[in-house]
Amino acid sequence: VDQAASVERSGVSLADDSVRVRYINELMELMAFLERRKVLTQSSGMGLGGESMQGVASSSSSSSSSSKRAADGEDLESVPVETLGSHVTVVKEALETLQSERAIQWIQLGGKSQKLFDRVVRNIDEHRRQVDKLSESVEVTRRRRDQMTHELASTAHEISAITRTTKSLQRLVEADLSTLFNNRTVNVMGDINML
């Protein structure tokens, strides 16, 4: 983003065909370099052939030679094949984006209509705020659900104890009433039998 902003401030724009073509060429060169590095890494395990890679490195442009460093400052020689593959994928996606007709239309529109880009930026910011609010709501709801689950689990034991006590009281009342009615069987009716 900072690089894009500095490019815009310097007056260089992707709407300029020559600038866009230069970026596309550099990305293609970088992709070829990474694919070659990936093939050599695969063919020799983790070690790389020094001579052949020096030839590839010397033929690459300054942008691709500066990209020989991995994200954490590692030499590209020590980067695993999977990481090289992911770098190739990212470069391919960037190329596809730069070459897509939709991106070219947006770039050309942006050069002509700053208001359009401002409106798109406002819409994206608004959507981001809505996503943030929804994420907060989801988090609050999740916390409430966890709290209610905990409360339900803690009250389940209490409810079970109350149910047992109520059932034993029901049996005692039925026994006491039975003695009043010449030891006939007495059943207390009602919702208590639903427990």
SSE topology sketch:
Blueprint lengths: L1 H8 L7 H27 L6 H10 L2 H5 L14 H19 L1 H12 L1 H67 L15
Helix pairs in contact: 2-5, 6-7
Tell me about this structure.
The chain has 195 residues and is an all-alpha fold. It has helices at residues 2-9, 17-43, 50-59, 62-66, 81-99, 101-112, 114-180. It has two domains: 2-112, no CATH class; 114-195. Helix 2 (17-43) runs antiparallel to helix 5 (81-99) and helix 6 (101-112) packs across helix 7. Residues 47-74 have low confidence and may be disordered. Residues 58-67 have a biased composition (Low complexity). Keywords: Coiled coil. It holds the Pfam family CDK5RAP3.
Strand segment tally: 0
- From the alpha carbons, calculate the radius of gyration and give it in angstroms: 36 Å
> Number of domains in the coordinates?
2
Count of runs of 4 or more consecutive helical residues: 7
Percent range for helical residues?
A: over 70%
Beta fraction of the residues? under 5%
Biggest sheet record: none
The first-to-last residue Cα distance is: 65 Å
- Overall average residue pLDDT: 77
Unreliable stretches (pLDDT < 50, length at least 5) are 47-74
Assembly form of the protein: single chain
Question: What gross morphology would you assign?
Answer: elongated
Structural class: mainly alpha
Run of helices and strands: HHHHHHH
Family: Belongs to the CDK5RAP3 family.
Keywords: Coiled coil
Pfam families: CDK5RAP3 (PF05600)
GO biological process, one term: regulation of mitotic cell cycle
